[in-house]
Design a protein that fits this description.
Oligomer: single chain
Largest sheet: 16 strands, mixed
Shape: globular
Strand content: over 45%
Number of domains: 1
Structural class: mainly beta
Helix content: under 10%
CATH architecture: Beta Barrel
Distance between the termini: 28 Å
Number of helices: 3
Number of strands: 16
Amino acid sequence: MIAPVLALGLALGAPGCALPRLADARPWRTGETLAFDLDLLGMVKAGTLELTVERPMSGGRVVPLRARARTSAGADALRAFAGVALSWVDARTLLPERYHDEAEERGVHKVSDARIPRDGAEVHISYQYGEKRGEATFPRQGEVLDALSAIYYLRAAQLPPGERFCFDLIANRRFWRLEGTVAAKPERVDTPAGRFDTLRVDAVARRADQPAAPARPIHLWISTDARRLLVAAVSEVDLGPVRAMLSSVRGGH
C-alpha cells in the first residue's frame, strides 16, 4: 500500500524532461513525522501511513527516510497489510543510494532491496515473495528515485505552475518510467491536520518492463508554506482509488 500511494509519472519521452531543481533550503528537519489517514473508494477507512525523517548518518552525508503503513481492522478483510520502507538519500542531492521495503500482505512476506549507483547505467533489485527469491536488472533512462525519496525530493523542489518533470522510480518491487506536471493554479485543501494552500501535481506511472500495462494515475497536494508538507495524495491500487489525507505533523520544528 505504501508504493501505490507514493508512485507517480506521466507518458514517456517528453522533450527536455528531467528532475525539477531543488530549492536552496530543505523544508524539513530531523524527527519530522507526517501521519496520514488512508481510505479506499472514498468510503472505507483503509489504514494509516507515517513518514519520518531519521537522524543523519555517515557524518551527515546520508539522511535515512522511513515510511510505515498498515491496514485498519475494517480493511483487513479486503487486504491485510503491514509494511515499512527505508530510503537512504544523499543529504546534498536528495538522490537515493539504497531503497529497502518489507511487508506482510495476507500472510505473505514480501521484501525488496535496491542499490542505486550514482553513475551506473542499470538498477539492480533483489526481491523475495514468500519462499520465492529473485533478482532483476533495469536500464535507467535518467535520475532514479524511489517511492519514498520521491516525496521528499518533490517537497524540496522548485515547482512553478506548469512545470514538467520526469524520473525513473523504484516502487512496489518494480521499476517505472515517470513524468509529472504541476497544476496551473494553487488549491486549498481541508484535512484533519488543518486547511492548507497547496500545489497540485498530476501524474501517472507506467511499468518499465511492461509499457502496455495499465497506467497508475496519481495526484499529490504539497503545501505552499515554508514546510512544503505533503497534504494529500490520491492514487489507484488493485482494489480501487486510495486517498491519503494528512492527519498530524509531529517534530521537526
